[in-house]
Amino acid sequence: MKYIVIVTGVLFLLTLGVTAAEVIAQRGRLVHSVFFKFKETATKEQIATVEKDFRALKAKIPGIITLESGMNVSPEKHDKGFTDAFILTFATDKDRDVYLVHPALKAFGDSLGAVLADAFVIDFWAKE
Questions:
Q1: Helices 2-15 and 93-101: angle between axes, nearest 10 degrees
Q2: Is 126 helix (H, G, I), strand (E, B) or coil?
């Protein structure tokens, strides 16, 4: 049902002659920023698996425009122990909402228990 709503919304925009790029230009893009702090007992291999599995979500969940990730390299020392960042972009809040309840994200989240100490998430509308 959710996919029908998304497809219907896209078709509606197309009938108005509005592209996703035009929506983003008018409204900005929705940036979903996720930051992880790993348990001290987490191994490098476990962390690498988390990173790989998170990046794989782009191919599994519709609506993700971009998914970038990386480890903290800031010399400022304000990271509070958070080491990994994942930055996703969406054209609409509905696309983000599909991502938030998608079974692939739920399965990924369930796999984090053994290694994740903490996480925080910030969403914002980015404009140039």
A1: 160
A2: strand
Mean pLDDT of the chain: 87
From 56, 64, 55, select the one nearest 99 (Cα to Cα): 64
Angstrom CA distances, 68 to 22, 56, 63, stand at: 22, 11, 15
**Residue pLDDT, tens place only, 51-78:** 999 999 999 999 999 999 999 999 999 9
**Mapping DSSP to helix (H, G, I), strand (E, B) and coil, where does residue 95 land?**
helix
Compare 18 and 91 and report the one with higher pLDDT.
91
Unique residue bearing structure tokens 């290694």:
115
Please give the pLDDT value at position 17: 66
Give me 97's structure tokens: 């909402």
**Positive/negative CA dihedral, 65, 53, 105, 82:** negative
- Euclidean distance between the first and the last CA atom of the chain, given in angstroms as a whole number: 34
Q: What's this model's pTM, rounded to 2 decimal places?
A: 0.77
